[in-house]
Amino acid sequence: MMNAEEKWQGLPYYPISQFYKARFGERVRKISVSVAETCPNREGLRGMKTCNFCDAWGSAAHPDKSGLEVREQILAVRDLMRRLYSAKKYLVYFQAYTTTYAKVAELRKQFETAFAFTDVIGAVVGTRPDCISDALLELWDEYAKKHFVSVELGVQSFSDQQLTWMRRGHSAERSRQAIRRIREATSVDLGIHLMFGLPGETDDDIIEAARECNSLPIDNVKIHNLHVLRNTPLADDYSAGLFSPVDKETYFRRCQIFLQHLNPQIAVHRLAALSNKPGELIAPDWTAYKMKTYQEFLGFMRESKAYQGQLWEQNI
Ligand code: SF4
Questions:
Q1: Cβ atoms within 10 Å of 212's Cβ, excluding its own
Q2: Cα(149)–Cα(187) distance, rounded to whole angstroms?
Q3: pLDDT tens for the chain, residues 1 to 316
Q4: Which of 49, 98, 101 to mutate to test ligand 1, by most ligand atoms within 8 A of the CB atom?
């Protein structure tokens, strides 16, 4: 029988790159584009406030290009990807803010623009659990019948207390309902984003998060450590001594525990947050060294002989 690392490209967990390779037969790169200018939180709908960790760009990967039309953004980022990685196939990632807040007709146009490129083989849509409508589900499903369409939901936590602290404006139950609703109404690939390193978080909370993932009909998960970015509400808390990010070892341990309890068939995108804008990261400093930190994490897992699904409780 193969051990975990033989199964997963030499890694102790199931990387999303392996899923893409199996699905598309080759490596794919993501082109992140910005299509929504705001989100319910930033608009202050229903008394909501900007999430405490969110920067002025709504997490856009290429904020300098967000004023361009989608086609121009795709051309610009694709050119960069070709030069840097000799990439040939792409997924367009409608990433910034809450893309489904835009009108469904607008989203249709954006999908058409993306799929007009012959080397664009799929679309990935990032959104919130409370921005799902029947019209949107129909649109996703229509395109999922013709192309690869993936939806990534910003769940962030399954603790209502933590969600309130982050000012997310939705509950954990809302996330569960959105996941089930998307799964029932569409054939999209479905992933969620989770944040670790929240105040008061315990190892048991992490195990519980893995169990939630195992019990829900999801295909993949993306993990971020909570980092402090300039000009965010969290930066104010950090300066006032009201919040400190977890240290690297604690974060590694939490990720390891999560992976050990996670169903080995759920693919994992990335394991830490990434700040794209120079000078934007305030803390913790270890998150700035993406590859070094990642290699250290792999070493941490290997030293403990840990791997994804090692403590997975299939019946829970
Ligand atoms: S994280 Fe998303 S939902 Fe929250 S304020 Fe930023 S763009 Fe809006």
A1: 19
A2: 8
A3: 577 778 899 999 999 999 999 999 999 999 999 876 677 777 777 777 888 998 865 555 555 666 788 999 999 999 999 999 888 999 999 864 455 555 788 889 999 999 999 999 999 999 889 888 898 999 999 999 999 999 999 999 999 999 999 999 999 999 999 999 999 999 999 999 999 999 999 999 999 999 999 999 999 999 999 999 999 999 999 999 999 999 999 999 999 999 999 999 999 998 887 776 778 899 999 999 889 999 999 999 999 999 999 999 875 5
A4: 98
Tell me, yes or no, whether 249 lies in a domain. yes
CA distance 262 to 22: 21
Q: Which of 34, 37, 41 to mutate to test the pocket of ligand 1 (most atoms within 8 A of CB)?
A: 41
**Is ligand 1 within 6 A of the CB of residue 136?**
no
Residue 54's domain comprises: 4-303
DSSP helix/strand/coil, 221: strand
Question: How many independent structural domains does the chain possess?
Answer: 1
pTM score of the predicted model: 0.92
In a domain? residue 309: no
Paired with 268 in beta bridges are: 15, 221
